[in-house]
Specification:
This protein is of the alpha+beta class and about 775 residues long. The chain folds into 3 domains: about 260 residues, Beta-galactosidase, Chain A, domain 5; about 400 residues, alpha-1,2-mannosidases domains (Glycosyl hydrolase family fold, Up-down Bundle); about 80 residues, GH92 mannosidase fold (2-Layer Sandwich). About 30% of the residues lie in helices and about 25% in strands. It contains 19 helices and 36 strands. The strands form 9 sheets. The protein has a 9-stranded antiparallel β-sheet. An 8-stranded antiparallel β-sheet has the order 1-2-4-5-11-18-15-16, with no helix packed on it. α8 runs antiparallel to α9 and α11 packs antiparallel against α12. The longest helix has 23 residues. It is globular, with a radius of gyration of 27 Å. GO terms for molecular function: carbohydrate binding; peptide-N4-(N-acetyl-beta-glucosaminyl)asparagine amidase activity. Pfam families: Glyco_hydro_92, Glyco_hydro_92N. It comes from Pirellulimonas nuda.
């Protein structure tokens, strides 16, 4: 019998636990820490005052030059501006409040302000800082297409809000910009972003800004000099400001709406999404939207830092890629010679059926976003599929990674093929699937997207080596051509996987001849197998092995292997692991090869520093190797998958400080999505692309995980994982049940997941080498 004191303590403990559980269930955004790994930021990495996939990515910038080491960096002491676009190859519309002597025309070096983390608040959808130089408290939030700024000014008649529209931001200069006074409460204009080696055309972004009180003066400047014109300014290195007289602690709210199509559509976006001046309401709505999406994956138990990292990972997976269409569905098509405004499909109510997106390559997303989005966010996946189908209609190719309506030809191959195969084979089909298939089929032959090497923009590009892949069965290292990432062995291996994915899509769509053709071609990976070294080796056009071969390279790329080396890429046969293991001589030989790589990588925490991806045996800081720990499941060693997945998760991606967590290259949600999958204990080596794909099981970091299933796509309501005896040390599965029935295989099917149910795992500190061996994965892996 409990004493009153013990009973009271128990009640307090229980109340605290219930309180924590309620926060997790109803307000998971509180568990997100946007400042994780911000010491080494990338331009598109950090966007605090942003909605999920928001067109507006509003946040402070402490550095404004370069795609890397730019944006918000934690250890910097000055804020240069608050800019609205932190996207793949795009940036724009920097804003800054100042007081006192006017310095806007002198540039950011002159008007930047110190700030401190001591009085800073950073949450999903909200950011607050105090600009010490000016005594201004700046608060930021947003809708999807409208940035909200609330500035609390000191008393004075020289309170300014700068719009440094012509300033150099991130990837390049601004060709020209224009700002015009519309009224004493509104200005409007544009910035023309200069092309980059990746985004091949100059690209417009338009804006409209409104203020909660009339301004007293409009000022403009160009090339460092104030303009005599008092109502407009345009040209290179141009910008503008509005001046207010403010009383002590007076708040001025600015609403800044964006569009990539026109000033008129920016104004439509403003009026549709922000018809009022209630900053706190917009902030609350942003929090609610984040909670709605974050709560689709619900966890309880586990260490607090693991919960923080999980929801931060999930936040990144829903943040890094950006909406570029207007509220009415207008978007800018830049695939032709001139910009064209297009329209997405509308529903019966006249509203857009989906958004258009801007995103870096889906290269490697088959082991991250493809899996996570298809599980918990199938509606998002539908939108991305529609975007790519529209780009095929507009410009003739399914893209690898569009920026501002441009093809960018970023990275290699056709990663859209596994994306569509996963979507279609999981029942995500809210797009023109036949048009998608024809576009993907085109990409699989000379003249398609695979034929474009990295950033190879010419229409007759051949740097992807598809003519050799078709004729020889591999891409030779001496293929010639132009463009980047011309790494023949990596191309061959990725093309073979993409062929298999296209075969899976063809089978599901009843295209039997194509299914058999692409399935046979997916075996091309065997053409690079060297039985002497038991590694994949680059070949030359004459069929000989490439001279100077080394298992490890130096710097970014080992010869023949894109941002990697053969020790990692040899494992890149996600569609036929049984075949690869057979080449090694069997389960024991392959498991020894793989285990040695992990054992040797422990001191490096399983990652390579950026720029050194070819120098390590295991690299969980870059896409080609992010399935390696799960591959033990295919060699009948599931306990080794459990061991190494747990170690990789905690050591490579477990940090929750500003000085670690993603190693500086989170890649628009890919590493975040991978972190979620490792933390909840579900993964798909084939990327989910198979007609009968499976989820491989490892131990979750939480007592309970619930994935809410979208009723529009799946028959079930939730899929739940319960982990008994869960702890950081207990990474080994001792036994399992699925919906109450004993489970002795290390996987569940997509159908079992989609129907909902409960997977219960009993965990322990030592491996149970008898669990998970039924129905071996390598034997059931669909080769057909």
């Amino acid at each position: 019998m409990k004493t009153p004191r013990l009973a009271a303590a128990f009640v307090l403990f229980l109340a605290g636990w219930i309180c924590v559980w309620e926060v997790q269930a109803s307000d998971p955004s509180r568990l997100v820490d946007p400042q994780i790994d911000t010491h080494n930021s990338r331009w598109f990495y950090f966007a605090s005052a942003c909605r999920p996939f928001g067109m507006v990515n509003l946040s402070p910038d402490t550095r404004t030059k370069g795609s890397w080491q730019s944006g918000y960096l934690y250890d910097d002491t000055n804020i240069r501006c608050f800019s609205h676009i932190h996207a793949w190859q795009m940036a724009g519309i920097p804003v800054m409040p100042t007081t006192g002597d006017f310095r806007g025309h002198q540039g950011m070096d002159q008007y930047q302000s110190p700030y401190s983390h001591d009085d800073e608040v950073v949450e999903p959808g909200y950011h607050k800082v105090v600009l010490k130089r000016y005594g201004v408290t700046a608060e930021l939030t947003s809708t999807c297409r409208v940035g909200f700024h609330r500035y609390t000014f000191p008393a004075g008649d020289r309170s300014y809000i700068l719009f440094d529209t012509g300033a150099f931001l991130a990837h390049g200069a601004v060709v020209s910009s224009s700002v015009k006074q519309v009224s004493d409460t509104e200005i409007a204009g544009y910035a023309l972003m200069e092309k980059t080696p990746r985004r091949p055309k100059d690209t417009y972004v338009y804006f409209v800004a409104r203020f909660s009180k009339p301004f007293d003066e409009f000022l403009g400047w160009s090339r460092g000099k104030l303009s005599a014109e008092k109502q407009s300014v345009d040209g290179r290195d141009a910008g503008a400001a509005v001046r207010f007289a403010t009383t002590k602690d007076e708040q001025v709210v600015a609403k800044v709406a964006l569009s990539y199509t026109s000033v008129e559509n920016a104004r439509k976006n403003l009026e549709a999404e922000a018809p009022h001046w209630d900053f706190d309401l917009v902030r609350a709505e942003s929090t609610a939207e984040w909670n709605d999406l974050l709560s689709r994956v619900e966890v309880t138990g586990g260490a607090p830092e693991h919960q923080t990292k999980l929801y931060t990972d999930l936040w990144h997976a829903l943040l890094g890629r950006r909406i570029v269409s207007d509220v009415d569905g207008s978007y800018c098509d830049m695939t032709g010679a001139e910009p064209r405004v297009r329209q997405v499909r509308l529903g019966a109510d006249g509203r857009p059926l989906f958004d258009h997106y801007n995103f870096d390559a889906l290269w490697g997303s088959h082991w991250s976003l493809n899996i996570l989005w298809s599980m918990a966010y199938p509606d998002v996946m539908d939108g991305f599929c529609n975007t790519m189908v529209d780009m095929h209609r507009d410009g003739g190719l399914i893209p690898r990674g569009p920026s501002g309506g441009n093809y960018t030809y970023v990275m290699i191959g056709d990663p859209a093929t596994p994306f569509f195969a996963t979507a279609y084979n999981k029942g995500i089909r809210g797009y023109d699937a036949e048009a998608a298939y024809q576009g993907l089929r085109k990409n699989a032959f000379p003249g398609g997207i695979r034929d474009h090497a990295g950033y190879e923009h010419s229409r007759d590009a051949r740097g992807g080596g598809m003519r050799f892949y078709v004729d020889l069965g591999y891409v030779p290292e001496d293929m010639g051509g132009s463009g980047g990432h011309r790494d023949g062995a990596a191309m061959t291996l990725e093309y073979a996987y993409q062929d298999w994915c296209l075969a899976q899509l063809a089978e599901a769509m009843g295209k039997q001849d194509d299914y058999e053709f692409f399935l046979k071609r997916s075996q091309n990976y065997r053409n690079l197998w060297d039985p002497e070294t038991r590694l994949m080796r680059p070949k030359m056009k004459d069929g000989s092995w490439m001279p100077g071969f080394s298992p490890l390279g130096k710097g970014m790329t080992g010869r023949g292997f894109c941002e990697s080396n053969t020790m990692i890429y040899t494992n890149f046969v996600p569609h036929d692991m049984g075949g690869l293991i057979g080449l090694f001589g069997g389960n024991e030989q392959y498991a020894q090869f793989l285990n040695h790589s992990f054992e040797q990588s422990v001191p490096l925490n399983f990652v390579a520093d950026h720029g050194h991806h070819a120098e390590t045996l295991v690299d969980y800081d870059n896409q080609p190797g992010t399935a390696m720990a799960h591959l033990f499941n295919y060699s009948q060693k599931p306990w080794l998958a459990q061991k190494w997945v747990r170690e990789v998760k905690l050591k490579a991606h477990g940090d929750t400080s500003p000085y670690g967590g993603y190693h500086g290259d989170e890649d628009q949600g890919q590493m975040g999505a991978l972190g979620v999958l490792m933390a909840i204990g579900l993964f798909q080596t084939d990327g989910g692309a198979g007609v009968d794909s499976v989820y491989e099981i490892t131990a979750p970091l939480f007592d309970r995980v619930k994935v809410k299933l979208d009723k529009s796509y799946f028959p079930g309501a939730t899929f739940e994982i319960v982990a008994h005896n869960q702890s950081p040390e207990n990474c080994y599965i001792q036994s399992a049940t699925l919906n109450g029935a004993p489970l002795n295989r290390c996987w569940i099917s997509q159908q079992e997941f989609a129907e909902g149910g409960k997977l219960e795992l009993t965990l322990g500190p030592e491996p149970n080498k008898q669990w998970g061996l039924d129905q071996p994965l390598a034997e059931r892996a669909p080769r057909r």
